[in-house]
Amino acid sequence: MLFYLSKLTGWVAPLRVFQYTTFRAVFAAITALLICIISGPWMIRKLTELKAGQPIRGADELGSLAPKAGEKAGTPTMGGVLILWAVVDATLLWARPDNPMVLLCLATMLCLGFVGFLDDLAKVSARNSKGLRSRTKFIAQLLFGVALAAYLISHPVVGKIAREFYLPFFKKPIIADMGLLMLGWFALVVTSSSNAVNLTDGMDGLAIGCTLIVTLTFTVMTFVAGNAKIASYLTMPFVPGSAELTVVCAALVGASLGFLWFNCHPAEVFMGDTGSLAIGGLIGAIALMIKQELVLVIVGGIFVMEAASVMIQVAGCKLRGKQYRVFLRTPIHHHFQHLGWAETKITTRFWVLSVIFALLGLATLKLR
Question: For a Cys-Cys bond, which of 100, 171, 226, 327 suits 242, CB 3.0-4.6 Å?
Fold first, then answer.
């Protein structure tokens, strides 16, 4: 919205700063941060009054972890509403509202956030950790991924590049036109990314800290993808209009910092599925729009580890019997908790790994 102030530079010359993506991205981050910091206590108080406490699985499932988990009982969940609120407001204020990619990002957050909200609401209402059926959430995520792909395919500006398929370290697309396969690919990436962040959200500050690191990385990548000269120099796909995604990423960075203020150990609020499904879907959608979805596998290495641990555990149980265990418990952060690691140690070490993965992902921009 404030971008249009740059149209008044003929009367007030300093307003030209609103033309610059970097200027608006910085202030989008500050705006989202302030929204979270200022409205966070009110949001936490309201969620507490509504008795939106986090359901904790029973001692029969948690074993020796039950006493520690019990300390979290009653901590309000659905704090993801605060993240969505901050990101949407900051984006609408500082990004170009006529950019279709920006609108797609907001649609991704709101749609998947709504699915997560229904899941959290079901858990809170039933006072258990089951929530919506997994199949229901999975179908909703797949349908949104297909809808996102269908829109981009038909877009006159980015339609061609959206159908291309790139591999990290390669300068040119491996597949020039994915055709209808793009529908399934987009659905897979959005669903996988959304669920991977959801699985990571199991310890104070873990998911939101990793989100902050991944989003900072994609703030750089979206800026590069939207700048023809830099993209050409780094032999990265140039996606017209994607520079505005830098503002969206910056808004999520600010919101992540603000939410971490309340979610660090001991957490005052949990993001719940409302936040994790929305954040994961948004990151996946941005990666797809700038054709860096496979780089996301590197940058989001922690999310991949968490999701892979669950998949390996499930596969092992099906192949070798229900009593077979590859890990003591999944997602993998609980495996280390069973080994006796303190929660803060696990979170900090996973953040360190996330920074390493982010640096490796950034290295792919030059190694092509």
Answer: 226
Residue 169 lies in a domain: yes
Q: How many residues does the chain have?
A: 368
Which residues constitute the domain of residue 254?
Answer: 22-297
**Percent of the chain's residues with pLDDT above 90:** 71
Token pair for 304: 């991949």
**198, 277 contact by CB (below 8 A):** yes
Cβ–Cβ under 8 Å, residues 122 and 130: yes
- In sequence order, which residues have a C-beta less than 8 Å from that of residue 235 and are 6 or more positions away? 171, 368
Domain assignment present for residue 104? The answer is yes
Q: How many domains are there within the chain?
A: 1
- Residue 266: is the preceding peptide bond cis (ω within 30°)? yes
Residue 64 lies in a domain: yes
Between 256 and 120, the more confident residue is 256
Is the pLDDT at 54 greater than 90? The verdict is no
Per-residue pLDDT tens over the stretch 103-132: 999 999 999 999 999 999 988 887 666 778
Q: Token digits for 203?
A: 């310890």
> Does residue 11 lie in a domain region?
no
Amino acid present at 107: A
Rounded-to-integer distance, Cα 281 and Cα 194, Å: 4
Question: DSSP assignment of 21-83, as one string?
Answer: HHHHHHHHHHHHHHHHHHHHHHHHHHHHHTT-BPP---HHHHGGGHHHHHTTTT-B--THHHH
Q: How far apart are CA 303 and CA 100, in angstroms?
A: 28
